[in-house]
Records
---
Amino acid sequence: MKKTWTIILIVLFALACARAVRPKGLYQGKFDTASGEKFSMRALKKNHTNVFYFISPECPLCVNYAKDIKDIQEEYGNDSTAFIGVVSGSDYTPQDVLDYLDEYDLDLTVVMDPNFRLVQFFKATITPEVFVVNNKSKVQYTGKIDNWAVSLGQHRQVVTEFYLKDALADIGSGVPVRLDQTEPVGCFIE
């Protein structure tokens, strides 16, 4: 009997440890996209910069920021900078995501992250939340898109800080990102 309990405890401990293991690298593995294709993370390694944009189709701030993300993607997206949307968990179907992209005219590859692998890698907690990453998996900026949203339900009349744009401009100019982290505001990732 004692031997059985020991084996059970060892197995439970091993399972707990396995869940706590952080993914080995950002640019490993494949994800399904909202459009039903397989997306290899390795393909992003060729880019100088990748912007991961955690979204939730029904989060009011993700709706409010859709045009801003579209504009930033049009301004900074190119052969060496990719924008990747991430929808984590299982609350939204691929069709929900496609409807969101269509409604707000976003041309964005969105990966479905039902097991929270990217959430765990980045330690993402909020939507919308962005992570600007180089091809060596180093996060160069994380946080808000700009300072419009002060808190849930409270926003500024005029945007005075453009955090994501500034980070991308700094990277494009070859200088260190001046402000590499801000506190995101939005809906909790569940």
---
Amino acid sequence: MKYSKPALIASVIAVVFAVFMATTILVVTVWSAQSIVNAGGSKPDRSWAESEHYTEPDPVTASSAEDFYAQNIHWGSCRADQITDRGSASKSSLSEYQCARLYAPLDWEEPAGEQITLSLAIHRSGSEGAPALFFNLGGPGGASVNSITYQVEDSLGKDLVQKYDIVALDPRGVGESTPLKCLSDAELDTYNATGSFFGVNSKREEETPQEIVESSTRELTFLADHCEHRSGDLFAHIDTVSAAKDFDMVREVLDQPNFNYLGYSYGTFLGATYAELFPAKTGRMVLDGAIDPSMSVNEVSDLQMRGFEDSIGHWMDICLASKSCPFTGDRSAALKQLKDFLLGLDEEPLPTYDRKRPLTMNLALGAVIGTMYSEDTYPVLTQALSSALKDDDGSQLLYIADILNDREDDGSYSSNGTEALIAINNLDYEAAGTIEEWERDAELLKRELPVFGTWAGYASAGLDTWPTSHAQRQEIHAKGSQPIVVVGTTHDPATPYVMAQRLASQLDAGVLVTYDGWGHTAYSKDAGSCVVGAVEGYLLDGTVPQNGLSCSK
């Protein structure tokens, strides 16, 4: 049989994942290209200054944090590949965008020390003195600069684009800001194919709890050593608190009295952290697909696995009702067939269009989880699984996995999403519980989740060996802030609805808006009038939606 690279699904996947795949703790997602930071990080990366598009920012001789707040910004034109990505809008309107760089301290507690660069882009509203609206699509590890054209032209309502200067800032360690770099392309290939930096297929169901912990510890030690060797001190300073402080500095440099913000998924944690640190500067803020900042890594991971299990059952119901579904029987029987297929790939990977890269269990699992982010990609998963099960062709599932992992046709990776996601989470979370508690929770999830239960649990395993500090999880209140609108989707797989409820209740001025539906996050200009009215009404004229407002399609 001839295995060809699938073209039919490309346009659907690209557009949907540009919106939905930058947003979760569990799934490596679509990010922008970036350069490799010099090992040791002794100087800010200035390789970008060689481009004709940039004017190098003025050097900052800093003795205090205020010196960074006082720097000037020099806007220049943007490269096409800098502000667009797979599924992004056309590149015909590049003149409407400007790009720039700023300096920030590596460590906000030691502003006179080493410096990093931050990359940002702006789309002008056309009105002099317009307020700025920052956005973040999530991650952690997701870039914003490369998605600004999509946000402006395809996601945000036109009234928002006309009212605000839309600002994208790549968080520290991510995208075109000084990036974290840990792994080679070959090492990323190994990890994505097997779930192990050592290329060892983990058989969870055959391992003891102690073996699972020891394996996780080896994996995290390997990654930490590589991050420290290739990125120096940077990998210890890409936490969310530091990123939020960067955002406040940029707000001041742009001469903005308030920080107006639209954050999705992890971006809700970034926004809530900003509001906790700078409540008096917090302007109109909308947090869509919320993360509860008080939950441990175990709680977040367990909820996500339950959310994806809920969504895979919903997808299966739709699949079984169609003529193209490769599964048979009722939902329970069909889900067992799916799981058996995934587990079978450990022993017999499927051939694909790339003879050197068969479809493994880990790649297929990533593709399945990734397509749960939106009902728009359900047919794509059905088609890909049909090809795999009926034709023994794993090409389409591999293609989906490559898009999610940002793997290019030449074998290179256009982002550091995998490294940044793990490293940032390991700064933001600390290990919780005991090995006995992890075992008990994992056994419960295995019993209750017929598909994903095998891979659930042990989220804290090895985390205490990560050689940096770990933030303590705690509630965020943002006392004294303006109202903060929190949007939750009832069947959100990546940030389950209960987290939106909890964040809204923690915030002193939290306002909960509920969307009754499926998929990750709710707002775009094409959402229903209820969600659009609630989000845009607040951002446009400050109309606070009714707390507890419930929306449907």
